Amino acid sequence: MSSSTEHRTDGRGRTTGSVLSGLAVAVGCVLFLGGFVWGALIYRPYTVPTDSMSPTIAAGARVLAERVEGSEIRRGDVVVFKDSVWGDMPMVKRVVGVGGDKVTCCTKRGLLTVNGTPVEEPYLQGSGPASPVGFKAKVPAGQLFLLGDHRNDSLDSRVHLTDSDHGSVPRSAVNARVDARAWPLGSVGVMQRPTSFSALPGGISQPGPVQPITLAVVAGAVLILAGAAYGPIARRTARKRG
After folding, report:
1. Residue pair 229/221 in contact by the 8 Å Cβ criterion
2. Given pLDDT bands bounded at 50, 70 and 90, which one contains residue 22?
3. 4 is an active site residue
4. How far apart are CA 148 and CA 22, in angstroms?
5. Per the residue annotation, which of 21, 54, 93, 205 is the catalytic one?
C-alpha cells in the first residue's frame, strides 16, 4: 500500500492532497476578496489631470488615495482636495505648510524654508530653485499651504497669495491622502513620505495599509491558483504512474 501523501485519505475517500488544495483555495478566496473589500473601504482611485505633480505623479496617472480626515494631514503629504476658490474639480498637491507656519522661498541655495528651516525637496521637477518666483506666506490656523512638485507648471498656493486665506485651504477641504500610484504599470509603487519634513513639529504621517492589502490580494491569488492546479496535476501524475 502506497504511503505517499496523495493516496492517504481522511476517512471519507478524499486524499490529503485534495483536502489541502481545497483549504488553500478557501483561504485564498478569503485573502483575495478580503483584500479587495478592505481596499475599497479605505482607498479611492483618482486620475491626476495635469502634470503639476510631475515627476512624482504624471498627467493621466491613476493613484490610490486613503480616505482620511483633514486633521491627520502632515507636511509632505500629497493630498486630494477640493476648494471652491481654486475650482470645481478635485486637485492633487503637496502640503508644505500647516497652520501657524511661515513658508518662504527661496534661500541662496534655492530651497524652500518652513519657519526658517531649509527643506530639501528631492521630488521636485528639474534642478532649479524650489520656486521660480520668490514668495512669503503665513499659514492661518486650521489651514494648509499646498504646492505642486512641478513648480514651473503648477497653479497652487502661490497663485492665491492675495486671497483672504493667503493661498491656503482649510483642512476640511482635504478628501484623501495619496498612498500609491496604480497606473500606468511602469510607475506603480507606494508613495514614500519625504523625510525632509520629519524634523519639524508634528513630524510626517505614517503610510497607509496599501502594502498589507496588496500582499493579501497577491497571496490570495497565489493560493487560489495553487489549490486549483492540484487536481489536474494529480490526475496527470496518476495517469503517468498507470
Report:
1. no
2. confident
3. no
4. 50
5. 93
